[in-house]
Amino acid sequence: MTRFIFITGGVVSSLGKGLSAAALGALLQARGYSVRLRKLDPYLNVDPGTMSPTQHGEVFVTDDGAETDLDLGHYERYTGVAAQKGDNVTSGKIYSTVIARERRGDYLGATVQVIPHVTDAIKSFVWANSQDTDFVLCEIGGTIGDIEGLPFIEAIRQMGNELGRERSLFLHLTLVPYIASAGEFKTKPTQHSVKELLGHGIQPDILLCRCEKPVPSSSRRKIALFCNLREERVIPAPDVETIYDVPNVYHEYGLDTEVLRHFGFEANEPDLTRWKEIVHHVKHPEGEVTIAIVGKYTSLVDSYKSLAEALTHGGLANNVKVNLNWIDSEIFEKNDSIHRLDGVDGILVPGGFGERGAEGKVAAVKFAREFRIPYFGICFGMQMAVIESARNLAGISEAGSTEFGPCDEPIVGLLTEWASGDQVERRNETQDYGGTMRLGAYDCNLAQGSLVSQIYGAEKISERHRHRYEVNIRYRDALEASGLRFSGMSPDKRLPEIIELPEHPWFVGVQFHPELKSKPFDPHPLFSSFIGAAVKKARLV
Ligand code: GLN
User: Fold this and answer.
1) Could you give the domains of the chain?
2) Ligand 1 atom 8: the closest Cα is on which residue?
3) What would the pLDDT profile of 1-51 be if each residue is shown by its tens digit?
4) Distance from the alpha carbon of residue 379 to the mean position of ligand 1, in angstroms
5) Is the CB of 352 under 6 A from ligand 1?
6) Residue 97 in contact with residue 120, Cβ under 8 Å?
7) 3-state secondary structure of 238
8) CA 202, chain centre distance (Å)
9) Does the C-beta of 469 come closer than 6 Å to ligand 1?
């Protein structure tokens, strides 16, 4: 029998609701239960795919090709359960489903309303494919009181009522600020937030109180009294040194024990060995390396969430701390600033879109190639690496990408046709922007004897994609003659998936996003190897 845990947030945004949900998922798993995590996003976009990463953060792509909220990345990294299309829904998707049904005549005769039609659509999303799981953890995006969130709050209220307390739990994340001048923790924002939730008919069962340092028992008692809860159900969630300590700390404060008690389960001790080991490694590195990330959305670190995590995982695999040096590639388009890359142990150009900053990325690739600094190009970073090699190794001086407009030597061009299972997907310039890229998991064959086949220890791999352009296969011979190796290809041999420079200590470009599959307890081999090369470089200097 599936139980549902609904996670809401109050007071302010950015409290780390996604991380809290993920950590609770990991704790329930550590007790031997199966979990699935879902996210309901109240905004009106159908999915985050068309939103700027600097507004919304990274777009996390699932194996089945959905463009989803970055919280799904936290869920996967903490639980290892691969997210699916059906694990993230937005108001935009719910409304478009309801309106399409109305046009089809499915509601014939009825006035279509938020309650029950929109709330029913939300509820069926939460229910879908949940039968085989012990716990579905369902996070509601935004903060309580947001106008857009109301139908979602109403839908989970109804579900709570229908399921009963034995199958549902409401967890509310709030902030308990510490006011230094008064030397006190303040409980009023939490009281107000719970009042707001009660106004929508929801009494939280557990409060998770984010705070700079542990909330003292006097404040816990006060919150418990005003919010109608037992003190053990008011759980402090203090800031921690590393996000991988969150499951350990929540457990110490009794979160999982209280959740299980609510459902009437005997609470055996969870096995948290792997989380303790990870924290130990994070806190006791044997050295450090510095990686320059030359990108475009560097003003918001969340734009590259999975990437930053995957680099940390690569560090864990090598027992080193990875310092991330975020650099806006545009600076390399002016004067002599390329020397900001002097002394870094590795250079990474991540995924990206559009022309702005592209030449700066090409300059960073050139620097990495010429000075033999480990280089990792991801998606756009691979495309820029191929353009750089085309210009400076193969002598194709006009090499460019049609993503930036018409081009004499389209080394990178629009992806117009590709195989997806037994079907052929086709695209042209006039199509909609949303949801039309080559998305999700695709197979790739690795060339024998290549660096990547050695790194993966396999001949065939599957990785997640999100791109509209591709390296133009017509240039393969010219590029290979100049020293670039096409070491990974789609099974039909038409789409270049990986390139490498065998003459270089570590130079790899991949058309996919390996960062999306890396886990702290299972670092992605490409990141482990890249950081390993950076360690070698750091020792040589
Ligand atoms: N803009 C490039 C493309 O669409 C790269 C995309 C990416 O880096 N995710 O192919």
Assistant:
1) 3-278 (3.40.50.300), 286-537 (3.40.50.880)
2) 351
3) 999 999 999 988 878 899 999 999 999 999 999 999 999 999 999 989 888
4) 6
5) yes
6) no
7) strand
8) 30
9) yes
